[in-house]
């Protein structure tokens, strides 16, 4: 059965810290891995990763995929209170996205 | 380009009532999805469609029905509302191998 597992499930850090969120997967017909951020509304897209070892970067956020070890990480440096959210990982497999349960990140001022 | 739109934003239903949640996208996407998200939980796939006239069940289809008569519209029907269907419902769409776009969600309360 296809599955996507995120860790940790929740994380509390102080503003300015760096965090690393993990996403591992066991999915047949892997096409890509996607990261989303969800605040109190619909998820918003962050990154799509298709190739191993190529870092995607947007401001203080970056992500990388390891297709051999079947995982991805999302890094956030110099965290701000506005980074508080649930971060969702999903794998594109055939017609569907297989979703992880999310990591709830809380940034304390 | 409005993206994915959903109506209504919020609805209260009595047990046993029925309703249709509307979803429209103007991006000419083939794939469309309905998810539900219970408080503090992840997304669960209800139904999906890979094109007009084609629908398939997801993880939690019981109590729901869908149709896809056009590329743009993908309504979700609740026939006999139950308290267990209290949730936030998200519609989403995408092209194959591209990112998925979400609608703003419909919050449903069944009392």
Molecular structure report:
The complex is a heterodimer of chains A (109) and B (111). Chain A has 109 residues and is mostly beta strands. Helix content of chain A is 0%, strand content 61%. Chain A is built from no helices and eleven strands. In chain A, strands 2, 4, 5, 9, 10 and 11 form a six-stranded mixed sheet that branches. Chain A starts with a strand and ends with a strand. In chain B, the strands form two sheets. In chain B, strands 2, 4, 5, 6, 9, 10 and 11 form a seven-stranded mixed sheet that branches. In chain B, strands 1-3-8-7 form a four-stranded antiparallel sheet, with no helix packed on it. Helices cover 0% and strands 50% of the residues of chain B. The A-B interface holds A 31-32, 34, 41-45, 48, 88, 90, 92, 95-97, 99-102 and B 31, 33, 41-43, 45, 48, 50, 56, 58, 90, 96-105.
SSE arrangement of chain A, N to C: EEEEEEEEEEE
- What radius of gyration of chain A results from the CA coordinates? 13 Å
Q: What's the overall geometry of chain B? A: globular
Which descriptor suits the 3D outline of chain A? Answer: globular
Write a concise synopsis of the structure shown.
The complex is a heterodimer of chains A (109) and B (111). Chain A is mainly beta and 109 residues long.
Spell out the key features of this protein.
heterodimer, A: 109 residues, mainly beta, six-stranded mixed β-sheet, five-stranded antiparallel β-sheet, 11 strands, 61% strand, globular, B: 111 residues, seven-stranded mixed β-sheet, four-stranded antiparallel β-sheet
Topology diagram in text:
The complex is a heterodimer of chains A (109) and B (111).
Chain A (H helix, E strand, L loop, with lengths): L2 E5 L2 E5 L4 E8 L3 E9 L5 E6 L6 E3 L2 E6 L4 E6 L8 E9 L2 E4 L3 E6 L1
Parallel strand pairs in A: 2-11
Antiparallel strand pairs in A: 1-3, 3-8, 4-5, 4-9, 6-7, 7-8, 9-10, 9-11
Chain B lengths: L3 E4 L2 E4 L5 E7 L5 E7 L5 E9 L2 E4 L6 E3 L9 E3 L8 E8 L6 E2 L3 E5 L1
Parallel strand pairs in B: 2-11
Antiparallel strand pairs in B: 1-3, 3-8, 4-5, 4-9, 5-6, 7-8, 9-10, 9-11
């Amino acid at each position: 059965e296809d599955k996507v597992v995120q860790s940790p499930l929740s994380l509390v850090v102080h503003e300015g810290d760096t965090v690393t969120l993990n996403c591992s997967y066991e999915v047949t017909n892997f096409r890509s891995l996607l990261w989303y951020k969800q605040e109190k509304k619909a998820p918003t897209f962050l990154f799509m990763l298709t190739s191993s070892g190529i870092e995607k970067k947007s401001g203080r956020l970056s992500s990388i995929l390891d297709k051999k070890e079947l995982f991805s990480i999302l890094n956030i440096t110099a965290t701000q209170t506005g980074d508080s959210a649930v971060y969702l990982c999903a794998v594109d497999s055939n017609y569907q996205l297989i979703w992880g349960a999310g990591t709830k990140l809380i940034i304390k001022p | 380009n409005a993206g994915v739109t959903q109506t209504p934003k919020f609805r209260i239903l009595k047990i046993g009532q029925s309703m249709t949640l509307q979803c429209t996208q103007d991006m000419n996407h083939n794939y469309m999805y309905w998810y539900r998200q219970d408080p503090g939980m992840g997304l669960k796939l209800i139904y999906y469609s890979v094109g007009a006239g084609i629908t398939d069940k997801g993880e939690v289809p019981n109590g729901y029905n869908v149709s896809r008569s056009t590329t743009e519209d993908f309504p979700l029907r609740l026939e006999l509302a139950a308290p267990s269907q209290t949730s936030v419902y998200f519609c989403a769409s995408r092209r194959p191998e591209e990112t998925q776009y979400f609608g703003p969600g419909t919050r449903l309360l069944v009392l």
